[in-house]
Automatic annotation (TrEMBL):
Associated pathway: Cell wall biogenesis; peptidoglycan biosynthesis
Domain Penicillin-binding protein transpeptidase: 298-566
Record keyword Cytoplasm present: no
Name of the protein described by the UniProt record: peptidoglycan glycosyltransferase
Top-level enzyme category: transferase
Entry EC number(s): 2.4.99.28
Domain named Penicillin-binding C-terminal: residues: 616-692
Species, as recorded: Alcaligenes endophyticus
Domain Glycosyl transferase family, chain residue ranges per copy: 47-198
């Protein structure tokens, strides 16, 4: 019954006390932090509910008194068998009186230890009773009275699945066994006689025991006491840590069942103090966002060098609508958090440098499903910016332009090498991959950022202290040390991110750190992931249901938690920027015109450049006018329920301001309007839109299609 059958040998042989104690197994599995502090207790044996083995000196004297009074009054006076009790029980049976038990504690323990002596539904046979007597006497010959009583209280069943004094105390009474009161002890002893007896029977037996130990006043209010106590049978056990439920399940998944059964305690890489701080930080931030429809969050802290998981919070606990869901491994849309990997790949391929100019302007890219028209978060455009500014300020359109240089499949292959769980091909994601349309999980994404902190070397995370796992991990080079360092330098550059985030934001820390935020479509998810010299911290904020948040971005949602965790980690530990690796060259650069301030920039070998001159054709001054609205290939549908006067299409062009003044709009060969922009009532059919200069030179042309009911054409000149 207790894993001892292999120890018993012949039927008559009894195990030693040390063998029984060693073979005992709790029904719980305990996860410890890196310092041996209890993090989480999970139940793994659902056939019974048993706690730790409790030494006799740590059991309440009141309970010992009650148990002996109920089960074995002459325990210390007999050698395993109470012959007087047996004679009395035999007499009662002979005369037909109410039967009473005569098994001593030693006899009961012997019945627990030998399968052949366990009580069946119809009771024990005479032969079994005799064998039980012999086993009890043998037990008393090799065990001390204290050992027998201790083993009995740790192995006996009290109520339902509750086995042993530790589970009894922590579940039903919500305290340790040493703290049980007289009334609690009397109820516990009453449960031994009838573990599943009705409350009325238990109340009568409990009161009788209280009277026997001269505490009859404790019978007052006993019914309510029993009702409240027995209702706790399914509650969590008192004193069992609940700091890391999701991490504990993650560790269990990594361990074979045989290992969990044999070793009911497991040391992990987590730090309990840090774990508790992360949980509190999440709670405080979500309470501060309670008007923004935000209910959940997750956070992961990794050690840069070893990949050890130091903190792991999978949900916001009671603030969440689905607290059992582990959002640290749940797939969510990545948003702009994938941009650093895109730029690192482009730097390594010498497609761009940190100083390269990228055009943050309207972009229309044809795809198999129509046009892809990316927009920035703030719906505005900056114009020409450096790659450093584009990444640090998280501008969308420059990122898409970089992806057109690499190809979506190339980026997918790169992200897979980092360990991100992408399930689709580059063709599936298309250009939107640059803006984080792929689903990833927080743990994998945080570990991918660790590759940037590790000089481009990707490796697995670890849940055991020292970075030792059951399966060895291999380090793999994804980026060059130069590209990885440069990405960290960009993401730590306050000046470079001032366009979007300003100089003083929660992304700034009083020590060196690099960070990137991200917000998914419709504000369903937001992220803040970054690293210091020693740690990588990843935070996700959103809703378990996937519902949109109200005006919450990575800066206002996840970044405050990230900032707080980083400050906690570096309260006594400095974080400094590392020196540029060999193969990076510093160059004093300037732009003509002065789109950005002159500065010292770093270049990979072969990409050095000191002067960046934007040709006149790249600016509006002197630029040939072109149509920006509508986009070529646009399909419009007229709505018959909207008055025709309210259905207008904006015609817009850009270019040299002087040329725009004399611009002429021609639609299907007919002059419609003049100037840089105009409104036109769309007509069904295929429409050709052209612009001409004042000198009647055609400058640009495109075709769109309008669908819907025919309406009277309006002419304008």
């Amino acid at each position: 019954m207790f894993g001892l059958l292999g120890l018993l040998g012949p039927a008559q042989a009894m195990p030693h006390y040390g063998q029984v104690k060693q073979a005992y197994r709790s029904s719980d599995w305990v996860l410890l932090d890196r310092h041996g502090e209890q993090l989480q207790v999970l139940r793994q044996d659902f056939s019974r509910r048993a706690g730790a083995w409790v030494p006799l000196e740590q059991i309440s004297p009141a309970l010992l008194q009650a148990v002996l009074a109920s089960e074995d009054k002459r325990y210390y006076d007999h050698g395993g068998v109470d012959w007087l009790a047996l004679a009395g029980a035999g007499w009662d049976s002979a005369v037909g009186s109410q039967l009473r038990g005569a098994s001593t504690i030693s006899m009961q323990l012997a019945g627990m230890l030998q399968e052949g002596l366990q009580r069946a539904a119809g009771g024990r046979t005479v032969m079994q009773k005799w064998q039980q007597i012999q086993a009890a006497r043998q037990l008393e010959g090799s065990w001390s009275k204290q050992q027998i009583l201790e083993a009995y209280l740790n192995l006996v069943s009290f109520r339902g699945e509750i086995q042993g004094v530790d589970a009894l105390s922590r579940v039903l009474f919500q305290k340790q066994a040493v703290a049980l009161t007289v009334r609690e002890s009397a109820l516990a002893a009453a449960l031994l006689r009838g573990p599943n007896a009705p409350q009325a029977v238990l109340r009568r037996r409990t009161c009788a025991l209280l009277l026997e130990v001269a505490r009859g006043e404790q019978c007052q209010g006993l019914a309510d006491f029993l009702s409240v106590t027995l209702a706790r049978h399914a509650q969590p056990a008192y004193g069992h840590a609940q700091l890391a439920p999701h991490f504990a399940r993650l560790v269990q998944q990594q361990l074979p069942a045989s290992v969990r059964t044999e070793d009911t305690e497991q040391v992990s890489s987590l730090d309990a103090a840090l774990q508790n701080h992360v949980k509190q930080s999440i709670r405080q931030q979500l309470l501060a966002l309670n008007q923004a429809y935000v209910q959940d969050a997750a956070a992961v802290v990794l050690a840069v060098e070893t990949g050890e998981i130091l903190a792991y919070v999978g949900s916001s606990s009671d603030l969440s609508q689905a607290s059992q869901v582990d959002h640290a491994v749940a797939l969510r849309q990545a948003g702009s958090t994938l941009k650093p990997f895109l730029y690192a790949q482009a730097l390594d391929q010498r497609r761009i440098s940190a100083a390269s100019l990228l055009h943050d302007a309207p972009l229309n890219l044809p795809t198999g499903n129509g046009l892809y028209v990316p927009q920035n978060y703030d719906k505005s455009f900056t114009g020409w910016v450096s790659a450093r500014t584009a990444l640090a300020s998280s501008l969308n359109i420059p990122a898409v332009r970089v992806l057109t240089l690499l190809g979506a499949q190339s980026m997918v292959d790169n992200l897979l090498a980092l360990g991100l769980p992408l399930k689709q091909s580059g063709q599936f994601y298309g250009y939107s991959l640059a803006l984080g349309s792929a689903d990833v999980d927080l743990l994998s994404l945080t570990n991918a950022y660790r590759a940037l902190a590790q000089g481009g070397q990707a490796s697995d995370w670890h849940w055991q202290r020292g970075g030792v796992t059951l399966s060895p991990s291999t380090s793999r080079s994804v980026y060059s040390p130069q590209a990885a360092w440069l990405i960290g330098d960009i993401l730590s550059d306050r000046q470079a991110r001032v366009h979007t985030f300003g100089l003083d934001s929660v992304l700034s820390t009083p020590f060196w750190s690099a960070v990137k935020t991200g917000t998914s479509k419709d504000m369903r998810d937001n992220w803040a992931i970054g690293w210091s010299e020693h740690y990588v911290v990843g935070v996700w904020v959103g809703n378990s249901s996937g519902a949109s948040m109200q005006d919450v971005s990575g800066v206002s949602g996840a970044a405050p938690i990230w900032h707080d965790i980083m400050r906690y980690l570096h309260a006594q530990l400095p974080s400094r920027a590392t020196a540029p690796p060999e193969g990076l060259h510093s160059v004093d650069i300037h732009y003509q015109p002065a789109l950005e301030a002159a500065r010292t920039e770093y270049f990979l070998t072969g990409t050095e450049q000191a002067e960046f001159v934007l040709p006149d054709s790249a600016t509006d001054a002197g630029a040939r006018p072109s149509i920006t609205r509508p986009v070529a290939g646009t399909i419009l549908a007229l709505d018959p329920d909207i008055p025709p006067a309210n259905q207008r299409l904006l015609l817009q062009a850009k270019g040299d301001p002087q040329q725009l003044q004399g611009l002429r709009w021609v639609i299907n060969g007919q002059l419609w309007a003049s100037g840089a922009q105009a409104w036109w009532p769309p007509q069904p059919g295929r429409q050709t839109i052209e612009i001409y200069s004042a000198q009647q030179q055609r400058l640009d042309t495109l075709t769109i299609e309008v669908r819907g009911a025919q309406r009277k054409e309006v002419r304008k000149h």
